[in-house]
Amino acid sequence: MKTITKKLFIATFSLILLSGLSSCNAIKNANNKQKGAVIGATSGAILGAIIGNNAGKGGNGKLGAVIGGVVGGAAGVIIGHDMDKQAQKIEKEVPGAKVERVDDGIVVTFDDNGGGVYFATNKYNINTDSRTTLNKLAGVLYEFPDTRILVVGHTDSVGSESYNMRLSKRRAKSVSGYLTREKGLSSSRFTTRWFGETKPTHDNSTAAGRAKNRRVNIVILPSQKMIEKAKKESIKD
Fold first, then answer.
1. Global pTM?
2. How many helices (H) and strands (E) does the chain have?
3. What domains, with CATH codes, occur in the chain?
């Protein structure tokens, strides 16, 4: 009986807290039904946030495996609470970041349309403005060490598909490398993926659309350690 009561208390308290944080755009994007899904379900909503309308098309199995499943029940509520706090902090402190709370994760998008982390044409080096943004993001990531970080690179359709695939890889590696080598975050937390021009979220026939397709997503996910800790907390008497 104590266990059931505690689970109900955690769920109720977390929902009250979420309503109190509703002014944060990242929290508004959270879907409590998604966060309450059963363990083992594929995080399709996160895939959609990263690769747009191409989420349901072939070739996404490996990325889905990296993202993992959705944690449900009381443990999911605990993780959701921690992720909400982190999302709110990123939105507040990191300029140019579009922050979305999706499933158990946080999707941060930086694009060339004033996104805070951007690259010169055909370049993949981290410029001065991008360093400032990534420094602020690194500060938040330090505060939440029990998370995994996925960096995903994309390009627009200008240039050959093979060239853009290499360019998106270099940009994703450049961002993850800066956060690990320059800012000291553990490399064991990081995974990189890249899609070149193959996953546009906007129309490549317009300059504005191409700018949004030249993007890097940083996805923050709960680690296995974080999941196990949440499970233990959810069943304590």
1. 0.83
2. 10, 7
3. 2-234 (3.30.1330.60)
